[in-house]
């Protein structure tokens, strides 16, 4: 592929390497380091003049440091006369801060959009934004890819009884995503709804739908502490589900989330590799990953050749 360079930041070099391998190119040479006062320093070690540059950096690990590193890399390539700079952000950070929940609260996702634009990015590629309206925070094109085709393929390949299973959303916010997958698979769905009967009482959960003697598959976009997923699994077990799977796009798995999963009634927790999971997989035998680097690589290839990426919204490239 001529006139294309793919660079990686510090957050997720493994997925960047897989993307480069899929494209049949070598990763671009760049050096990132920190000075003694913790300032980030980036050096692009090869010419990018007139090149189509893609910088892969996920919103995980030391998020603020990695974010600053991304902004510096974008700016370094831009002022080195790159023809176009695209930020490839598999897991978009601060995506849950997309609106004012109360007075004087910041809309940090909008601030981040401004930072990325001002640093010199011409285009953003990401996967499963927590709220799709974040695309509107940018004044540059944003391709929000969906993990749904990869998740659907995993279900068909790994759950033998998937045709009689039930898709479940662990909260009201994920209903649209869940029903889309259920429609594609042509299977039933259910919703776990939280409600509060009286003020100052704990939320009670109500399962809307039937899962008795069936396999339940919970789907959500992100799991941080895994409280919602684990409580949802308990509710499904009480309702008589035989097996319970949880499938997520972004497995943050912070705090004691791994212990909760290990002690839960889940058959398996399936996440994509938008965030590195090697360490977590050693600690949790129930954890499995779905590789979505092929989708990112194909999005990059199609963007480079000015082809439509809408094919990827409903298909997994082979």
From TrEMBL:
One Pfam assignment: Pribosyl_synth
Domain Ribose-phosphate pyrophosphokinase N-terminal: 4-120
Domain of life: Eukaryota
UniProt keyword Kinase present: yes
UniProt EC number: 2.7.6.1
Gene Ontology molecular function terms on file: ATP binding; kinase activity; magnesium ion binding; ribose phosphate diphosphokinase activity
Pathway: Metabolic intermediate biosynthesis; 5-phospho-alpha-D-ribose 1-diphosphate biosynthesis; 5-phospho-alpha-D-ribose 1-diphosphate from D-ribose 5-phosphate (route I): step 1/1
UniProt cross-references to SUPFAM superfamilies, sorted A to Z: PRTase-like
Entry-linked InterPro entries: PRib_PP_synth_CS, Pribosyltran_N, PRTase-like, PRTase_dom, Rib-P_diPkinase
One GO cellular component, as annotated: cytoplasm
Keywords per UniProt: ATP-binding, Kinase, Magnesium, Metal-binding, Nucleotide biosynthesis, Nucleotide-binding, Transferase
GO biological process: 5-phosphoribose 1-diphosphate biosynthetic process; purine nucleotide biosynthetic process; ribonucleoside monophosphate biosynthetic process
PANTHER family xrefs: RIBOSE-PHOSPHATE DIPHOSPHOKINASE (PTHR10210:SF57), RIBOSE-PHOSPHATE DIPHOSPHOKINASE FAMILY MEMBER (PTHR10210)
Purpose: Catalyzes the synthesis of phosphoribosylpyrophosphate (PRPP) that is essential for nucleotide synthesis.
UniProt record similarity statement: Belongs to the ribose-phosphate pyrophosphokinase family.
Assembly with partners or alone: Homodimer. The active form is probably a hexamer composed of 3 homodimers.
NCBIfam families for this protein: PRK01259.1, ribP_PPkin
Name of protein: ribose-phosphate diphosphokinase
Source organism of the structure: Papilio xuthus
The organism's taxonomic lineage, starting at the top: Eukaryota, Metazoa, Ecdysozoa, Arthropoda, Hexapoda
């Amino acid at each position: 592929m001529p006139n294309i360079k793919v660079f990686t930041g510090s957050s997720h070099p493994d997925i960047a390497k897989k993307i480069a391998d899929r494209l049949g190119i070598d990763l671009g040479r760049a050096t990132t380091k920190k000075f003694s006062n913790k300032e980030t320093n980036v050096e692009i070690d090869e010419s990018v003049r007139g090149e189509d540059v893609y910088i892969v950096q996920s919103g995980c690990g030391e998020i603020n440091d990695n974010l600053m590193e991304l902004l510096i890399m974008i700016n370094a390539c831009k002022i080195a006369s790159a023809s176009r700079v695209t930020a490839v952000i598999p897991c978009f950070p601060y995506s849950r801060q997309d609106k004012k929940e109360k007075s004087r609260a910041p809309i940090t996702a909008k601030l981040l959009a401004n930072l990325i634009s001002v640093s010199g990015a011409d285009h953003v590629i990401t996967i499963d934004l927590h709220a799709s309206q974040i695309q509107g925070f940018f004044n540059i094109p944003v391709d929000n890819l969906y993990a749904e085709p990869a998740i659907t393929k995993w279900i068909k390949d790994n759950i033998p009884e998937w045709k009689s299973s039930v898709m479940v959303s662990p909260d009201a916010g994920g209903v649209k995503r869940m029903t889309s997958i259920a429609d594609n698979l042509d299977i039933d769905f259910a919703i776990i709804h939280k409600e509060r009967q009286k003020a100052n009482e704990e939320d009670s959960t109500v399962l809307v739908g039937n899962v008795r003697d069936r396999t339940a598959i919970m789907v959500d976009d992100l799991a941080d502490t895994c409280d919602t997923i684990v409580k949802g699994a308990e509710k499904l077990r009480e309702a008589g589900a035989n097996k319970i799977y949880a499938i997520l796009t972004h497995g943050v798995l912070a705090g004691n989330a791994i212990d909760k999963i290990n002690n839960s009634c889940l058959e398996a927790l399936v996440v994509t590799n938008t965030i590195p999971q090697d360490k977590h997989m050693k600690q949790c035998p129930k954890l499995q990953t779905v590789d979505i680097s092929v989708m990112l690589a194909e999005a990059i290839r199609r963007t480079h050749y000015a082809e439509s990426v809408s094919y990827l919204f409903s298909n997994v490239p082979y």
